[in-house]
Amino acid sequence: MAQGEDFRYPIGKEDQQSAFESPFNEQLKRTLIDDIKMLPSNLEYAIQNLDEAQLQTPYRSGGWTIHQLVHHVADSHINAYVRFKLGLTEENPVIKPYDQNAWAKLPDTQKLPVNISITLLHALHARWCQCMEDMTETEWQRTIYHPERKLELSLWELLKSYAWHGKHHTAHILKLRERMNWQ
Predict the structure, then answer these.
(1) What is the pTM of this model?
(2) Which of 81, 107, 167, 172 has the CB geometry, 3.0–4.6 Å to 59, for a possible disulfide?
(3) CA dihedral sign, ordered 25, 44, 172, 95
(4) Residue 6 pLDDT more than 60?
(5) What is the pLDDT of residues 23-37, one digit of tens each?
């Protein structure tokens, strides 16, 4: 590990991103929606030509395997889509947190090939991006309440968070490939 390199945050922490504090604006909205739109293809590219042993490699010591990571992104973004829909249709709904580590250990995550989650992400992101592209500026300010974090979040803040999330986990895989010299 290079001095100072933190394998947990290959692109930096979410709150270190330039978009983190940015108020709503059309240009940033377009960039973030494009990040989400491209995630399925970028993730698919990141795992391209990896064999089963490579897919079972943790991206860092104590971290999930690439296999688990791909399924995690699908699980997380399913929840994100539902959170957006709730935020658009209810007044400050309380969202349901979930134990992502427990989900990563469930049998479907262990047994199903990663291409199932890649396929799911392509369809899910098509729906989610269409939903977001049709949102008004006022709708971006609608909120959800996260009971674990005891925090009210706008849909604009969720967009920034999930755009970061996809790039964050894709970078985990790409950085591991680089460290392991996997072509």
Answers:
(1) 0.93
(2) 172
(3) positive
(4) yes
(5) 889 999 999 999 999
Which tokens belong to 85? 């829909």
How far is the C-alpha of 107 from the C-alpha of 104, rounded, in Å?
9
**How does pLDDT run across 142-178, given as a tens digit for each residue?**
999 999 999 999 999 999 999 999 999 999 999 999 9
What does the block give as tokens for 96?
Answer: 């349901």
Query: What is the domain partition of the chain in residue ranges?
Result: 32-180
- Residue 145 and residue 130: Cα distance in Å, rounded? 23
Q: What is the CATH number of domain 32-180?
A: 1.20.120.450
